[in-house]
């Protein structure tokens, strides 16, 4: 009888242990579906962005031509307004300024059109059949990839020194058209600043008329907010409506003045928005070029830098030779003379290197024993 009582607790412990093991196994199996030792917040973010990536992969190639047409239409409208309204206004002030604007404005326009056309039509570069140096194997192309080469899911090809796929160019930004992309941004940004400065007086006249300004005209959103918030609420009557109609007619006058009013405001607001958006993008790429990185490599190098910091080591970007030398390599000039012909004027010169093999700041690929200091 005593033996029977001793067996019951033992069976209960074994049953409890077996149940706990099964629960632990189910829990571990469940957790492995969502987490492992390689999971980071970057992985979680990438997983959360998968729907957006899917949309971009499926529809970016259709949105690209629309974006290109939009760039052409918006740029053409700005140029037409300059010819029709701004230049005649400048002519009434000084003929010397007209000559200056014709030369400087057309220099900017030629550079904008040239670099945009070359950025759209120039192939970014693809790996050849025979690759002398293999960094990895592309899982999509099932082909060897040279260093700094990445696969574009929109173009469905591997791109040499890929930076990103630009919908505004309807093309990938890579080794052979990266310079065109950046110089297009620079000249477009400079052109919008030039247009805003040129149209400032006319915009101030058309937008504010004879109102007293609480803030400078350039920060017109602050003036509008001050005007709206500072205006007392009133009840609208029929007499007020008639007065508003009369003021509207006096304000615009005939149809040409109305077109002038709308075009000048449209041009100034459009160029102001481009200055902010394109300026932020250009500052980002300026930082990357100064560090000898692309938009993809900045994330790869960041992970490697954090990994090596944990080991007490210092990460060195092998493709960075210092800010000045990085810019010379990127723009493809050596001295002031080549800078004039290759940067300030439209130039179709090819970038330094073939995009397949890369000279690094640690060693020369042709002579691995030779350190480059």
Can you describe this structure?
This protein has 373 residues and is mainly alpha-helical. 62% of the residues lie in helices and 7% in strands. The chain has eleven helices and eight strands. The strands form four sheets. It has a two-stranded antiparallel sheet with strand order 1-2. It has a two-stranded antiparallel sheet with strand order 3-4. It is elongated, with a radius of gyration of 31 Å.
**What is the percentage of strand-forming residues?**
5-15%
User: Count of DSSP helices?
Assistant: 11
What pattern of helices and strands is seen along the backbone?
Answer: HHHHEEEEEEHHHHHHHEE
pLDDT < 50 runs, ≥5 residues = 231-236, 244-255, 368-373
Keywords:
two-stranded antiparallel sheet; disordered C terminus; mainly alpha
Write the layout of secondary structure elements.
Elements: H1 2-32, H2 41-48, H3 50-91, H4 95-121, E1 136-138, E2 143-145, E3 150-152, E4 157-159, E5 164-166, E6 171-173, H5 178-208, H6 220-229, H7 238-252, H8 255-290, H9 297-310, H10 323-331, H11 336-344, E7 363-364, E8 367-371
Antiparallel strand pairs: 1-2, 3-4, 5-6, 7-8
């Amino acid at each position: 009888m005593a033996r029977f009582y001793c067996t019951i607790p033992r069976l209960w412990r074994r049953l409890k242990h077996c149940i706990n093991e099964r629960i632990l196994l189910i829990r571990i199996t469940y957790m492995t579906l969502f987490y492992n030792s390689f999971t980071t917040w970057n992985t979680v973010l990438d997983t959360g962005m998968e729907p957006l990536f899917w949309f971009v992969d499926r529809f970016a190639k259709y949105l690209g031509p629309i974006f290109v047409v939009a760039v052409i239409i918006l740029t053409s409208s700005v140029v037409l307004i300059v010819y029709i309204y701004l230049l005649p206004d400048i002519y009434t002030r000084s003929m010397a300024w007209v000559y200056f604007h014709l030369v400087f404005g057309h220099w900017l326009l030629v550079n904008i059109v040239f670099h945009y056309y070359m950025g759209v039509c120039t192939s970014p570069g693809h790996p050849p059949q025979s690759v002398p140096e293999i960094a990895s194997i592309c899982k999509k192309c099932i082909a060897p990839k040279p260093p700094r080469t990445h696969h574009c899911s929109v173009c469905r090809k591997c791109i040499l020194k890929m930076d990103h796929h630009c919908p505004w160019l309807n093309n990938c930004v890579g080794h052979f058209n990266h310079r065109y992309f950046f110089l297009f941004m620079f000249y477009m940004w400079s052109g919008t600043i030039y247009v805003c400065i040129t149209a400032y007086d006319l915009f101030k006249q058309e937008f504010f008329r004879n109102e007293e300004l609480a803030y400078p005209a350039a920060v017109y959103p602050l003036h509008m907010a001050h005007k709206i918030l500072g205006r007392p609420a009133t009840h609208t009557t029929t007499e007020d409506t008639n007065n508003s109609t009369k003021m509207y007619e006096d304000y615009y006058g005939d149809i040409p003045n109305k077109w002038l009013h709308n075009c000048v405001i449209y041009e100034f607001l459009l160029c102001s928005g481009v200055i902010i958006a394109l300026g932020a993008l250009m500052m980002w790429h300026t930082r990357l070029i100064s560090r000898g990185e692309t938009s993809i490599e900045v994330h790869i190098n960041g992970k490697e830098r954090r990994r090596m910091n944990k080991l007490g080591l210092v990460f060195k970007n092998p493709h960075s030779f210092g800010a000045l030398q990085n810019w010379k390599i990127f723009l493809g000039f050596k001295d002031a003379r080549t800078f004039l012909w290759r940067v300030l004027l439209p130039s179709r010169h090819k970038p330094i290197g073939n995009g397949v093999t890369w000279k690094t700041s640690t060693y020369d690929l042709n002579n691995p024993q030779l350190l480059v200091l």
